[in-house]
Amino acid sequence: MTSSTTSVRRAALVRAGLALLLAGTAGLAGAQTGPWPNRPIRIVIPYAAGSSPDVFARIVADKIGPKLGQQVLVDNRPGAGGNTGTGAVAHSPGDGYTFLISTNGPLVYNTVLYKKLGYDPFTELRPVVLGGAQANVCAVRTDSGINSLGELVKAMKANPGKFNFSSTGVGSLSQLGVELLKAKTDTFAVHIPYASSPLAILALLQGDVQFACVPAVAVMPQVKAGKLRPLAVSTAKRSALTPEIPTMKEAGLPEIENMAWMAVMAPASTPNEVVERMNQEINAALALPEVREKLAGQFMEPVGGSVADLRDFMKRELTVMTPIIKRSGATAD
Questions:
Q1: Structural domain contains residue 177
Q2: Which of 147, 141, 184, 148 is nearest to 166 (CA)?
Q3: CA distances from 243 to 116, 150, 166, 313 (A)
Q4: Strand order in the sheet with 211-215
Q5: Poorest-confidence range of 12-26, 126-140, 162-176?
Q6: Is there a domain that residue 224 lies in?
Q7: Residue 179 to residue 324: CA distance in whole angstroms
Q8: What is the CATH number of the domain that holds 83?
Q9: Burial 88-110 (b: 16+ CB within 10 A, else e)
Q10: 3-class DSSP state of 45
Q11: pTM value?
């Protein structure tokens, strides 16, 4: 073999080695290096700052960030009753760095309320964990002369068409919970939607409506001020945060049960191991006394559980509430 031939072969080997090195470097640059997570995690909230999901997210993010070794950033993406932010996450890559904390409406009810929702929460999102819940409290003004939920039902039956109720919007739990009450008691009341719980309560205080069933965080300050009388909570058991208020079952309405809930979700293609790790860390955070105390200050109760628990819960919610939504005639289109 001549020296010139040897030189040519050596040059070819060098070029081939360099090509392999460059290819490998490019591959590493485009892929995640090291175990998950190796950069900040984003949790999208489809509501404004200060909303219940936003408060919940910030309380939990402070605890899970150090455990994961990364910042957990809260990204508020409000709009379209929670659909804007929820849809954005549904259409995001499942890379393990984007999560969602959303509520009853965008995750379940809106699939019935909207003809074209723009995303499917049951196929384009995957459950992580049921985070927290709030009982709705049905209340009247203290000067109403109504002292129990049974008396409210009797008054509605005796005065058809003369009762109005406020809610936090068309298709919200504060509307649909009352629609469920109306369906089970064969009563009628006119729905007056508002943009928020404070506005719904203001309407009640001003006498524009006769009752409301909205989250406890909006009702209880007015109860303590002596302006509103709580009649019942919407949950199956008395809330530990409002133990003095009876359940609807205790008021003689055993088939009525609903709550405002918040669920952590991820894009459907998010890896199983990432979802399970987030489930584990959030459950651990919800068990901390300081987290439970902060949530209690917002009248929120931690829930937790497995990925499968949340999946089954959402399916039950859809089964129970679909006929109620259709009966109410509520539509968001």
A1: yes
A2: 141
A3: 41, 19, 24, 25
A4: 190-193, 164-167, 211-215, 136-141, 228-233
A5: 12-26
A6: yes
A7: 7
A8: 3.40.190.150
A9: bbbebebbbbbbbbbbbbbbbbb
A10: strand
A11: 0.82
